Amino acid sequence: MNSSQYLVIAMLCIAVCMGVSGCLQQVPSGNNTNQTCTAGTCPTPTGCSNATGTCPAALQNITSFNGCVAAGYPVMESYPRQCHVPGGPTFVENISQLCTEAGGNWNECSNRCPLDNAGNPTAICTAMCEPLCECGGITGFLCPLGYTCKTPAGIADALGYCVPESGGNLTRDQAYALALNSTCVQEGNLTNNSFYNPNSHTWWIDLVPNTSHPGCNPACVVDVRNGASEVNWRCTGLLPP
Question: Cβ atoms within 10 A of the Cβ of 84, count?
Answer without folding.
Answer: 15
